[in-house]
Amino acid sequence: MDPLTHALLGGATASALQPAKHSRIALLAGGVAATLADLDILIQSAQDPLLQLEYHRQFSHALVFTPIGALLATLLLWPWLRHHITFRQGWYITSLGYLTAGLLDACTSYGTQLLWPFTTTRFAWSIIPVVEPVTTLWLLWNLQRAYRQQTPYWSRLALLGLACWFSLAILQQHRASQLLQTTTQGHTIQDLQVKPTMMNLILWRGVYKYDGQMYSVALRPALFNGTPTLYPGEQRPLVQTYPNIPENSILAQDIQRFATLSEHYVVWHPQRPNWLGDGRYALLPTRIAPLWGITINPQQADQHAPFDEFRDLTPQTGKLFLHMLLGQPL
User: Fold this and answer.
1) Do the domain assignments include residue 330?
2) Final residue of a domain: which of 169, 192, 216?
3) Residue 176 resides in a domain
4) pLDDT-above-90 percentage for the chain
5) Residue 117, preceding bond cis, omega within 30 degrees?
6) What is the pLDDT of residues 13-27, one digit of tens each?
7) Residues 161 and 210 both lie in one domain
8) Cα separations (Å) of 65 from 13, 133, 293?
9) Is residue 184 predicted with pLDDT exceeding 90?
10) Which of 87, 191, 196, 271 is 20 to 30 A from 219 via CA?
11) Which residues pair with 235 in a beta bridge?
């Protein structure tokens, strides 16, 4: 998620478990510690663009790395912390903050290697979008009161409210998944994924595989007693073979790496020739138009594939999204 939400949750968690006299210190130190995990974005290579993707949300977000990440945060903050608490107390506080980084990112849809190095499985619970204003504003409102009043009460209230909000998100995801499974036209669903669209828990994107194709659909489950709505989406062939690329070439290896990162939801972009994209993500939940991918050039099989992003955000795209969000016909 965004750095602000990470900092707020890290601060809330750290301060909620401290006495009142240390609540402000924990709020600030835990918040700083929670943002350090995302320094993995600095791991990149101009020659190998996929390296950054492979290391994003990897070891720095793993549970076993928490003591190390917290130690680094404590050392960084020690010139300030040493005037208020012991090193051991600081390490405990930053551990609480740092621990939240991987867990919060695992709640999104991209995936986090929480159990690295024991497994490279990316945990993606897909219950909240990467930018979610209710979560951020709720934490911000409570934590400013926690800081001003120097009490852990507001931090605890923030975590309690967040637990309720995430429970609603899990319920919404379950409803969206059920809605999709009842309208699959007899398909035997493989690798079903249901994730919230940007900045809300009302409209969801569902993707699944069937018979060598991937399918997308927009899902608007009923919040209370309303009528659920399903918007049929697109289908596109999954790319599984590359006959013009030498088997053991650098390009072939990059394609396999990208396919693994994309959970084999790889498709050709409809508007960009020779551009292989991650079909799990699109601006509209009904579309299969990847937001990022790699350029495939068989004439340069001895070179790493270039990686870039593509977002064709037009007024029409925004209008369609709003119609689906409000449950209106397209």
Assistant:
1) no
2) 169
3) no
4) 91
5) yes
6) 999 999 999 999 999
7) no
8) 18, 29, 29
9) no
10) 271
11) 215
Percent of the residues in the chain that have a pLDDT greater than 70, as a whole number? 100
Q: Are 218 and 233 in contact (CB under 8 A)?
A: yes
Task: Kindly state the average pLDDT of the residues 102-113.
Answer: 97
Q: Is the pLDDT at 273 greater than 90, yes or no?
A: no
Residues 150 and 218 both lie in one domain: no
pLDDT tier, 187 (very low <50, low <70, confident <90, very high otherwise):
confident
Same domain, 79 and 157: yes
Q: What is the pLDDT of residue 113?
A: 98
Which pLDDT does position 183 carry in this prediction?
A: 79
* Residue length of the chain: 330
Q: With left for phi above 0 and alpha for psi between -120 and 50, is residue 144 left, alpha or beta?
A: alpha
The reported pTM is 0.95
Q: How far is CA 281 from CA 108, 125, 206, 286, in A?
A: 12, 15, 10, 10
What CA–CA distance (Å, rounded) separates 268 from 262? Answer: 13
Cα–Cα distance measured from residue 275 to residue 250, given in angstroms and rounded to the nearest whole number: 17
**What is the layout of strands, in order, in the sheet containing 307-309?**
266-268, 275-278, 292-295, 307-309
Q: Which residue range is the domain that position 93 belongs to?
A: 3-169
The 190-196 sheet, strands edge to edge: 190-196, 204-210, 213-220, 229-237
CA atoms within 13 A on the CB side of 179: 25
